């Protein structure tokens, strides 16, 4: 059994469930060290005092917040303890919300919640109740002296605790240059819907591979063997559909191009130029028209 990173209780109402917190993700990409190009010796970082130009040992390092240019408010370990919340051994469930109600922008890092000894039955009861009611719990926890908000969701046999961002951490999209509610013609919507439906499918995460990491590992392996040449993969292949998808894309481009050229909106009694062009293409295809093929993906540099 993997070692837990946190032990405590999960509480809701008068019920306390002994639980353990485990990491639910791992970084599989190769890690690299900084080396001196001349002799490939490791390069280390040092903490150098800006004023004295000398290396400072950890015992003399403190944390400070810059309140103005060059002026810092220094906090001691006691200050951080005073700021931390008292309860550091409990996950407190604050509310239950419909599963799917939390905006994806709020989610951060997932962890597994596992029952500790004696908490198996209460854990199973909460898991099954949440799953049947399609509810997600909003909870709070103190980790490393800092308060975190989290969402607890029942996924299969496990409860997943995912840390959440606070509302003030979400950037308002109004700061972006976004298009207004542009009137869209029905033929554009229909063509776009066909494109989406043409490559729609179930979510199967195992079918998506990290080709970049695989290529890095292949290059690393080749460099450890003299004369070795790595076999590099490309990005995930385009979905099946080929000529049909490309044809739909061409029609959509024509339709959008007509809109940019000042075509009349969908409620007009006359067909827009692009619409007429697409309709004509459907009824009487050109005799020498070449088959459009889907563009090939270029290999990443």
Could you characterize what this model shows?
The chain is α+β, with helices and mostly antiparallel strands and 301 residues long. The two termini are 42 Å apart. α3 (186-198) runs antiparallel to α5 and α5 runs antiparallel to α6. The strands form two sheets. Strands 1-2-6-9-8-7-5 form a seven-stranded mixed barrel. Strands 3-4 form a two-stranded antiparallel ribbon. Mean pLDDT is 81; it is low at 263-301. It has helices spanning 77-83, 120-133, 186-198, 211-223, 242-260, 273-283, and strands at 6-12, 15-23, 63-68, 71-75, 90-98, 107-115, 135-143, 146-155, 158-164.
Number of strands: 9
Give the terminus-to-terminus CA distance. Answer: 42 Å
The assigned CATH architecture of the domain at 6-27 and 83-167 is Beta Barrel
Cross-sheet strand order for the largest sheet: 1-2-6-9-8-7-5
Q: Which structural class should the secondary elements be placed in?
A: alpha+beta
**Spatial shape:** extended
Unreliable parts? 263-301
Helix content: 25-40%
Strand content: 15-25%
> Regarding CATH, which class of the domain at 6-27 and 83-167?
Mainly Beta
How many helical elements?
6
In the CATH scheme, what's the topology name of the domain at 6-27 and 83-167? Answer: Ku70, Chain: A, Domain 2
N-to-C order of helices and strands: EEEEHEEHEEEHHHH
How large is the radius of gyration? 29 Å
**Main beta-sheet strand count, sense and barrel state:** 7 strands, mixed, barrel
Give the integer mean of the pLDDT values. 81
């Amino acid at each position: 059994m993997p070692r837990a990173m946190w032990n405590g209780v999960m509480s809701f109402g008068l019920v306390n469930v002994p639980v353990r917190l485990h990491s639910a993700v791992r970084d599989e990409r190769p890690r690299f060290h900084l080396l001196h190009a001349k002799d490939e010796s490791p390069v280390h970082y040092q903490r150098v005092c800006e004023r004295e130009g000398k290396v400072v040992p950890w015992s003399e390092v403190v944390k400070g917040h810059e309140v103005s240019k060059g002026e810092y408010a220094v906090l001691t370990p006691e200050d951080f303890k005073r700021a931390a919340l008292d309860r550091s051994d409990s996950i407190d469930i604050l509310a239950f919300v419909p599963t799917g109600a939390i905006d994806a922008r709020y989610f951060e890092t997932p962890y597994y919640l596992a029952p500790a000894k004696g908490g198996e039955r209460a854990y199973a009861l909460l898991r099954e109740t949440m799953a049947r009611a399609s509810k997600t719990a909003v909870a709070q926890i103190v980790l490393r002296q800092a308060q975190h908000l989290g969402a607890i969701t029942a996924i299969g046999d496990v409860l997943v605790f995912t840390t959440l961002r606070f509302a003030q951490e979400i950037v308002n999209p109004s700061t972006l240059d976004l298009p207004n509610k542009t009137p869209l013609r029905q033929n554009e919507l229909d063509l776009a819907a066909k494109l989406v439906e043409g490559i729609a499918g179930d979510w199967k995460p195992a079918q998506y591979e990290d080709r970049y990491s695989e290529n890095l590992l292949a290059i690393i392996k080749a460099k450890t063997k003299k004369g070795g040449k790595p076999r590099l993969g490309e990005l995930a292949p385009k979905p099946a559909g080929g000529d049909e998808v490309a044809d739909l894309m061409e029609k959509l481009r024509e339709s959008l191009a007509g809109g940019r050229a000042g075509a009349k909106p969908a409620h007009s009694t006359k067909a827009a130029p692009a619409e007429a062009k697409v309709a004509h293409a459907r009824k009487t295809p050109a005799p020498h028209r070449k088959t459009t093929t889907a563009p090939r993906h270029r290999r990443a540099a």
